[in-house]
Design goal:
CATH superfamily of the largest domain: NAD(P)-binding Rossmann-like Domain
CATH class of the largest domain: Alpha Beta
Strand order of the largest sheet: 16-17-18-19-20-21-22-23
Shape: elongated
Radius of gyration: 28 Å
Helix content: 25-40%
Strand content: 25-35%
Structural class: alpha/beta
Number of strands: 24
CATH topology of the largest domain: Rossmann fold
CATH architecture of the largest domain: 3-Layer(aba) Sandwich
Length: about 525
């Protein structure tokens, strides 16, 4: 049979036992297998309702659920009549004690494989991870050298080695397939990479605008839905038996791009691009790596700030910001894996690019109340409720041009139509911030695109008005403007009517310099009118 060819129906198992079935990956495996017509026996320590993942499974009643199954006799009974086992259970936390990692990642795998052998199971699919490759292996295939850098990876490699030896030594042992997925993310995930999801929300509470980040080591990620489809593929192909397969998306992203993608997924406005200071970061963090108290303090601060975010947005989230010493070592080197071997069996990722997959994932978190919303409408609503009754408003129109880089000599016109709302008049020494709403039109870039942002008056050392706003271009990509009206004593009125700044795209790359002038013909602040009777 050639690779990628459909198998005969008798090669395809009909009853599959899935361990860790209510976990971030396991629930997706159950869903895919049920949709594909398998009879699924699902086991886990906690019920699906308890971990709030029932929305990920359309037909809960079609699954044979079993919880708190620990005794060998109970497992033997459940394994009877199963043609295949998919072993998703295990610990994915880098902070877990070594004995627990060994117990649940290695010893549990060994026991389940031996019991599967006794029950006559034909195929055993084991979920490992792609972080087991040696850091200097370059682009990693399944044949690349492996090396553990922490207790978690040690437990995963030990499980692989144990199962491989059992598959060779035990008579009538099941065929063994090992899957090594990249960093898993997606709806329902709460561990590993999901610990990064709260960070932009925490930072957003400190600063209204976050920089776009670039650079840093590159690695592949893997959407849990794609990992679940990989399980379905290997279950249906005899060529997959007694093999190891990488499972990863197509685009290896730098750590900076990953963080930027998460920020964009929230819809938070981005400032100019800042390169990740990898060497500098290691130099600064080096003295703290061996100090438990430093990590505990930082963890406590992150947890406190995340609780504040949840309280402010009225959410109750199982997500948690995580900081772990071992995770910092993933910032050292590229960790790129390829899944060509799995592709040869007919698998292809539905989410080949983390940047799109994480945006859909964050929307799922927000619908479940696991992550705050930072949409333009939500931000506008929060701003309007925080304003005092004594407010000032003025409208303003500006016209100008966008100066592009030399490779694009055209200078398209720019039209801005603003309304700025002040909670109080921006007197000297006050830190009052005005809220900006309106539209921007730039031919071939944005057509009457809604604008949301802020305006702040700085009186010292030189009076200036600083504008920051975001909008979406005609391709629905986020853009950002940062600009200033700077007072010039030689031309006081004219200088404050002129606005200059730069527009950057969603990656923090410059689109052009905006130079515009107010068409109102008067100093905007002098035209502010009280709104106490217009609320």
């Amino acid at each position: 049979m050639t690779q990628g060819e459909e198998q005969e129906p008798h090669d395809r198992p009909t009853t599959v036992l899935v361990s860790g079935a209510t976990g971030g990956l396991g629930i997706h495996v159950v869903r895919i297998l049920v949709q594909s017509g398998y009879h699924v026996r699902a086991i886990d320590r906690r019920a699906c309702e308890e971990v709030h993942r029932t929305s990920l499974l359309d037909d809960m009643e079609s699954v044979d659920w079993h919880y708190e199954v620990a005794e060998d006799n109970a497992l033997r009974k459940l394994l009877t009549g199963c043609e295949a086992v998919v072993h998703c259970a295990g610990v994915t936390s880098l902070s877990a004690p070594t004995f627990r990692l060994r117990q649940l990642n290695c010893e549990l795998s060994r026991k389940l494989f031996q019991l599967s052998t006794d029950a006559g199971v034909e195929h055993f699919v084991h979920i490992s991870c792609a972080t087991v490759y040696r850091a200097d292996s370059g682009v990693c295939t399944e044949e690349s050298a492996t090396e553990a850098y922490n207790a978690f990876e040690e437990s995963k490699l030990a499980a692989e080695e144990t199962l491989s030896k059992l598959a060779e030594s035990l008579e009538d042992a099941p065929s063994l397939t090992i899957l090594r997925p990249g960093l898993l993310y997606g709806p329902g995930c709460t561990t590993m990479g999901a610990g990064m999801i709260p960070l932009p929300a925490i930072l957003r509470g400190i600063s209204r605008y976050l920089p776009a980040l670039s650079g840093g080591p590159r690695t592949n990620w893997c959407h849990v839905g794609d990992a679940a489809r990989a399980v379905e593929v290997v279950l249906g192909h005899r060529d997959a038996r007694d093999q190891i397969f990488n499972v990863a998306d197509e685009n290896a992203l730098s750590f900076g791009e990953v963080l930027t993608s998460i920020i964009e997924g929230y819809g938070i406005d981005l400032g100019p691009s800042v390169r990740m200071p990898t060497l500098t970061l290691w130099t600064l963090l080096g003295p703290l790596l061996d100090k438990d108290w430093a990590f505990e303090q930082m963890r406590s601060v992150l947890q406190f700030l995340w609780r504040r975010v949840q309280s402010a947005h009225g959410i109750d989230s199982p997500l948690s910001p995580r900081l772990n010493r071992d995770a910092l070592f993933y910032l050292r080197d590229d960790a790129i894996v390829v899944a060509d071997k799995l592709r040869a069996l007919g698998w292809a990722p539905q989410w080949p690019d983390f940047r799109r997959g994480i945006a859909a994932t964050i929307r799922w978190y927000q619908r479940q109340g696991w992550a705050p919303r930072f949409s333009l409408d939500a931000m506008a609503e929060r701003r309007s409720t925080s304003l005092d009754s004594d407010r000032f408003r003025f409208g303003e129109r500006l016209h100008g041009v966008l100066r592009r880089e030399k490779s694009k000599p055209s200078q398209p016109p720019v039209d801005l139509d603003f309304e700025i709302l002040w909670p109080t008049f921006p007197w000297p020494r006050s830190k009052t911030e005005g809220h900006l709403n309106g539209t921007v039109t730039i031919p071939e870039i944005a057509t009457a695109s809604p604008v949301k942002g802020t305006v702040r008056v700085h009186w010292f050392p030189t009076p200036s008005i600083r504008y920051q706003f975001g909008f979406r271009d005609n391709d629905d990509d986020a853009c950002r403007f940062l600009g200033t009206r700077q007072f010039a004593p030689s031309a006081p009125l004219d200088s404050l009517l002129s606005l200059r700044g730069h527009i950057v795209d969603s990656r923090g790359q410059p689109i052009g310099e905006l130079i515009a002038r107010s068409t109102n013909g008067v100093l905007p602040l002098l035209t502010s009118s009280p709104l106490s009777d217009r609320s």
